[in-house]
Amino acid sequence: MLHKIKLPVHSIAHGRAGDKGDVSNVSLIAYNKFGWENIRENATEDIVLSIFKHLGATSVKRYELPNLMALNFVVQNALGGGVNSSLRLDRHGKTLSSYLLYHLILNVSLDMMPNNSPYREKFK
Amino acid sequence: MKQIMLNYITMSKKVYIGCGAGFAGDRYDASIPIVEDFKSINEPKYLMFEVLAERTLAIAQQYRINDASKGYSPYLDYYINPILQDCLEHKIKIISNMGAANPFGAAKRIIEIAKEKKIRKPKIAIVQGDDILNYMSEKDILNSPTMEGLDIKNTKITAANVYLGAFPIANALKKDVDIVIVGRSVDSALALGPLIYEFNWNASDLKMLSSGTICGHLLECGAQVTGAYFADPGFKDVPDLYNVGFPIAEFHENGDFLISKPKNTGGLVNKATITEQLLYETHNPNQYIVPDVVADMSELNLIEEEPNKVLVKGAVGHKKPDLLKATICSESGFMGEAEMSYAGPNALQRAKLAIEVIEKRIQKIGLQGKTRFDIIGAGSVHFSSSEENTYNNELDGDYRIRSAGFFENKEDAEQFVAETYSLYCSGPSAGGGARTSITKETSTASILIDRNIVEPQIKIEII
Question: Is B336 in the same domain as B312?
């Protein structure tokens, strides 16, 4: 059993956010199969909803793409009305992927990270 | 020589599609390296430009109302000028939605550009039928239920366009044209259209239509699939981002395709860049709905064939939808936006005081509108209002306040931004760098229309 520490999911996955109306989608893509097992098990709809709740999100639906080691979260009502009626600086919610990557905290081991990850320092 | 041998052995047809622009404000010179690569390719080759955002059409309609010869992409000259001559000489066909509210006007302008350059007159097909105001009554449109649940009955329509599919583009290509110009169509159709034409697919070739749609979806945002919008220094490094190569797809007869980028460009193509773009603006990956097919990404496989070249295979397709999506644009007042910086000792408190001053002034004047205030540097884009921010509560620093508000009248929006500007003399200590702007706002709603109403209205005209 490898040593695990709590780190932002940014250490083992990457992603991108897109918008359609007031619906945002945020992907979470693991760097390798160990990271994939972790996000598949622990990046749940409930946790993602709790992370976006302060923005007004009302529900989250999760889709899995095991071939691509990717999850896709469809978040309802997180864009302050969407590109039409939002007064937010980032009307499209393009920065929401970085919010999820930083605020979703998971138990992470070294084997889940890319070889050159700066997060490896945290294990020293 | 090796390449020729391989082609001889496999004997299968290949089609090349490059994407020279992925949104209305994309780089004007991005297509040049694609065209350079295409010069040495003998198979069919296409260059697509996707430049039409959801609300761009409402602005384009306004241009057309003001001047009947306008209403196409205002950037058409910038995109077409650098590559028109090479495309005509090397048989690179151009497919674009630069037509916006006036595809005919776009075609005429391209012919003028050819004349100015003293090159041969291109043969251009335009696809019409997306403007539903031409065949549906305003009343019927306004009474349709919207997908967002918005009530649009009392709004003033500025544009109403249905998303067309790829078959009209394929049919236009049968007329032996150099260029196809469309208005509103699904972005991925700019790639699927040429593929349908070249491989002679029909409406029941669901796997192929799906693969072509996924290929188009990967191409349609330009460099978002080749390492741009991906770079995260130290974590996801991308070489020479300033010189990122825009994507090229090499599509094979069996439905598999390779995504790569031109020679001598920066950027990165690997499984990670492809996967990020694949899921961009995708909801259910098993049901990516376009007019020609419901594409299914669940069985896709990505294989890194060589550096910066990824094979995509395994698309599955389901029956096309009976209903087509249309976007209804309407006027929705004005947005006023203004910013001002506070830096140095106690800057956060001064920024907070500045916002308090503006809020109280608005109340005193009696300005009516929805407003919002942010402190950039203390948490802005990740929070729904400045009170909630948790990122940075250091008092000293470099902060920028931002006020934003929606108003029915332009005068009110002007008054609103003036309240930030006037902080120069009447606000807290040492505010600087104020900027203000007023934008006319368009709101959009989506409705669904029976495709049998739309399809008889699609017309192809050759110029």
Answer: no
